[in-house]
Design brief:
The complex is a heterodimer. Chain A contains three helices and no strands. Chain A is mainly α. By secondary structure, chain B is mainly α. Chain B is built from 16 helices and no strands. Classes of the chains: A mainly alpha, B mainly alpha. The interface of A and B includes residues 91 and 94 of A.
Chain lengths: ~90, ~550
C-alpha cells in the first residue's frame, strides 16, 4: 500500500466548520415552527445531510482523501437518498 | 499463475500448534480458516436446532386440531425457528463460513485485512446467539411475534421480546464488521496481477454481499433499538395511539430484511457459479455479466422492500412503484441462470456430487424465483398474502436456494478444507432423498396457500388435511436425508488423509495450494497472469 500525504487542517477551518454546524442546528430547530407540511421533514433531512456532508468532508478528511473514497461515500448516500424518496411514495400519497 | 508449489508441504492449519493448545487454539486463533470453521460448526449446530423445531411444527400440523401443543407454544416455536434459521444460520450463511475460508485464498492473500476484527465478529455472533437463547428460556417465555417482530404486536405482547430483539441487534454488528472486513480485504489484498476482473465470481458475489451487510444492517439495528425504546420507555414510534406509525416499522424492517435475502442468496449464487464452471470444464460463459449481475442484484435489492407490504395499508402509488421495481430484480437473477446453462452447454461435464447439488439448487431456486413473481405482482399477492404459499416460496428460496448451496459448497470445498474425501455414492443418494423430501414437504404448501390456508396457525380446516399430512411425511424424509449428509461428512473427517490438492480439476487459486492449506496459505504470494477460469492457466 502506498503512503499518502497526511492533511493537517488549520484552526480556522475547524472553527468555521464548528460554527456552520451550530448555525445549521439552530436552523433545524427554527424550521420546525414554520408550517411547511410534508416539506418540514424534507427540510430537516436536507439540513441534516448538509451537516453530515460537512463532517465527512472536513472532520473526517474526505475532501483530502483519494477519489475512490469520495465516490464510494457519494454512492452510499445516493442509495440512502433513493431509499428515503421511495419510502415517501407511501407517506405522500397515502 | 506462478509462485505456487505443492511439492513441499507445510503443516496444515488444522495441525498447526501456535501459542495455545486445545480449544484455546481455536477460539483465540485469528487465522481466517479456523474462524471460518468456528462459524461453520456454530451455524450447522443452529441449523440442526432450527430443524428440530421445524419438525415439531410439522408434527403439530399432521392433522387438524391440537396434536402436541397449544397455540401459544406453536407461536413461540415458529418465532424461535425463524430467529434461529434466519439470524443464526442463513444470514451469516456462506459468507461467514466459506467466504472467510476462501476470500484470502482465492485472491492470493495470507489472511483477511483485519484478522482480530474477524475473530471479534465471531464473538459477537456467539454473544448475540446467547442473548437470544436467554430470551427464549427466561422471563415471560419465548417471543411469539414471528421473526419479523411486527409492531404494534411486538410492543404489546408480554413475552420476552426485548432480549430477542437485542440479540438480533448484536448479531447485526457481527454482520456489519464481517462485511467491512471483506470489502477492505478485496480492495487491498489481491495478489499482484489480480485485477477486479480477474477475481473468481464467488469473490464478486461476496463483494456485493459485503456492501449490503455494511449498508443495510444498521437500518434494522436502529429499528430494533426503537422497538426496545418503545417497550421500555413508552415512546410510541410505532404506536398509533401515541402518534406513531406501525407501517413505518414495516418499512424500516424490510429496508434491511429484503436486502438480507440477497445477503443469503448472493454468496450461494457465487458458489454455484464456481461449481458449475469447474465441473463443466469450460471457461465460464459471460464472466462480466455474472460479475455485474451480482452488483445489480445488490443495488436493485435495496429498492424493492415494499413488496412485503402490499396489504399493510401502504399507498396505491407506493404499491405500484414497488411492484415495478420488484420485477427488475428478475433480470440480473435470470442473467445468472442463463449464463450457468450456457456454461454447461457443450461442456465436458463430470457428474460429481457438488455438481448434482448445484443442479438441485437451480431446479429448486427456479421454482422459488418464479413463484416470487406471483408475490411481486400486487393483484396476485393480495390473494396469497400471509398464506402457506408465502411459506413455500420463502423456503424454496432460502432453504432450497441458500441452504442447498451451503451444502453444495461444503461438498465442493470439503476436500480442500480437510484434505479428505467423503463417500460420493452416499452423498449422491442422500441428495436424491433430500430432493424428494424437500419437494414433498414444501410443494403442497403452494397449493394449501392458494386454497386459502393461512400461515402461522397451529390448527386448520379439514379440507387442508391431506396435503398437510403429505407435507409432514416430506419433513421426515428430508430430515433423514440431512442426517445422512452430515454423518457422511463427519465419517469422512475421521478417514485417512489423501492427496486432495485438486480432486475436481478446479482452476481458481485455492486448487493450486495444498489441502488442507498451510497456516499462511501460500509459501510466496502468487502472481496472477490469467483470467480466473482459463483452461490454459492450469
Amino acid at each position: 500500500m502506498s503512503e499518502h500525504k497526511q492533511h493537517i487542517s488549520t484552526y480556522k477551518s475547524q472553527i468555521l466548520v464548528l460554527l456552520s454546524l451550530i448555525v445549521l442546528t439552530v436552523l433545524t430547530v427554527t424550521i420546525t415552527s414554520v408550517h411547511l407540511g410534508a416539506f418540514n421533514t424534507a427540510a430537516a433531512m436536507l439540513i441534516a445531510s448538509v451537516k453530515a456532508a460537512i463532517v465527512l468532508l472536513y472532520f473526517m478528511h474526505l475532501k483530502f482523501d483519494e477519489k475512490i473514497y469520495r465516490f464510494m461515500v457519494t454512492l452510499v448516500l445516493a442509495i440512502y437518498a433513493v431509499v428515503i424518496i421511495i419510502t415517501f411514495f407511501d407517506y405522500l400519497y397515502r | 499463475m506462478t509462485g505456487n508449489s505443492t511439492t513441499h508441504r507445510e503443516p496444515s492449519y488444522l495441525d498447526y500448534q501456535g501459542k495455545y493448545t486445545g480449544i484455546r487454539a481455536w477460539i483465540l486463533s485469528t487465522d481466517h480458516k479456523r474462524i471460518a470453521l468456528l462459524y461453520m460448526y456454530s451455524q450447522i449446530f443452529f441449523f440442526l436446532a432450527g430443524l428440530v423445531m421445524g419438525l415439531f411444527m410439522k408434527l403439530e400440523l399432521i392433522a387438524p386440531g391440537p396434536q402436541l401443543m397449544e397455540a401459544q407454544t406453536y407461536n413461540a416455536l415458529f418465532t424461535v425457528h425463524g430467529l434461529t434459521m434466519i439470524f443464526l444460520f442463513i444470514i451469516p450463511g456462506l459468507a461467514a463460513s466459506f467466504g472467510n475460508f476462501m476470500i484470502p485464498i482465492m485472491i492470493g492473500a495470507k489472511d483477511v485485512a483485519f484478522p482480530k476484527l474477524n475473530l471479534f465478529s465471531w464473538y459477537l455472533f456467539i454473544l448475540g446467539a446467547v442473548i437470544i437463547l436467554i430470551g427464549v428460556f427466561s422471563g415471560d417465555g419465548p417471543p411469539d411475534t414471528g421473526w419479523t417482530f411486527y409492531a404494534p404486536y411486538s410492543l404489546k405482547t408480554n413475552t420476552n421480546v426485548v432480549l430477542s430483539v437485542f440479540g438480533a441487534f448484536v448479531l447485526g454488528f457481527s454482520s456489519i464488521l464481517t462485511g467491512l472486513n471483506f470489502i477492505v480485504t478485496i480492495h487491498q489484498m489481491r495478489a499482484p496481477g489480480m485485477g477486479f476482473f480477474r477475481m473468481p465470481l464467488f469473490i464478486w458475489s461476496l463483494y456485493g454481499t459485503a456492501w449490503i451487510q455494511l449498508l443495510a444492517t444498521p437500518v434494522v439495528g436502529i429499528t430494533f433499538l426503537m422497538v426496545v425504546a418503545d417497550r421500555m420507555l413508552d415512546i410510541g414510534f410505532f404506536d398509533p395511539a401515541k402518534g406513531g406509525d406501525p407501517v413505518l416499522y414495516q418499512h424500516l424492517f424490510w429496508i434491511y430484511s429484503h436486502p438480507a435475502v440477497y445477503i443469503m442468496i448472493l454468496p450461494a449464487m457465487g458458489a454455484i457459479t464456481e461449481i458449475i464452471t469447474t465441473f463443466s470444464h469450460r471457461t465460464v460463459f459471460g464472466y462480466k455479466a455474472i460479475a455485474m449481475s451480482s452488483l445489480a442484484i445488490a443495488f436493485v435489492g435495496y429498492l424493492v422492500w415494499g413488496h412485503h407490504m402490499f396489504t399493510s395499508g401502504m399507498s396505491e402509488t407506493a404499491r405500484l412503484v414497488f411492484s415495478f421495481l420488484t420485477f427488475l430484480v428478475a433480470i440480473p437473477s435470470a442473467i445468472k441462470v442463463f449464463n450457468w446453462t450456457a456454461t454447461m452447454y457443450k461442456g465436458s461435464i463430470s457428474l460429481e456430487p457438488p455438481f448434482w447439488w448445484a443442479m438441485a439448487f437451480i431446479f429448486i431456486f427456479m421454482i422459488g424465483g418464479l413463484t416470487g413473481l406471483v408475490l411481486g405482482s400486487v393483484s396476485t399477492d393480495i390473494h396469497v398474502h400471509d398464506t402457506m404459499f408465502v411459506v413455500a416460496h420463502f423456503h424454496y428460496i432460502v432453504f432450497g436456494g441458500a441452504g442447498i448451496a451451503f451444502f453444495a459448497a461444503l461438498h465442493y470445498w470439503y476436500p480442500k478444507m480437510f484434505g479428505k474425501m467423503y463417500n460420493k455414492k452416499v452423498a449422491n443418494r442422500a441428495l436424491l432423498m433430500l430432493f424428494i423430501g424437500f419437494n414433498t414437504l414444501y410443494l403442497p404448501m403452494f397449493f394449501l396457500g392458494y386454497m386459502g390456508m393461512p400461515r402461522r396457525y397451529y390448527d386448520y380446516l379439514p379440507q387442508f388435511a391431506n396435503l398437510n399430512l403429505l407435507s409432514t411425511v416430506g419433513s421426515w424424509i428430508m430430515a433423514t436425508a440431512l442426517i445422512i449428509v452430515i454423518v457422511n461428512l463427519l465419517r469422512a473427517k475421521k478417514g485417512t488423509p489423501e492427496e486432495m490438492d485438486d480432486p475436481w480439476g478446479g482452476r481458481t487459486l485455492e486448487w493450486k495450494i495444498q489441502s488442507p492449506p498451510s497456516l499462511e496459505n501460500f509459501e510466496e504470494i502468487p502472481v496472477v497472469e490469467h483470467e480466473p477460469y482459463e483452461l490454459t492457466s492450469k
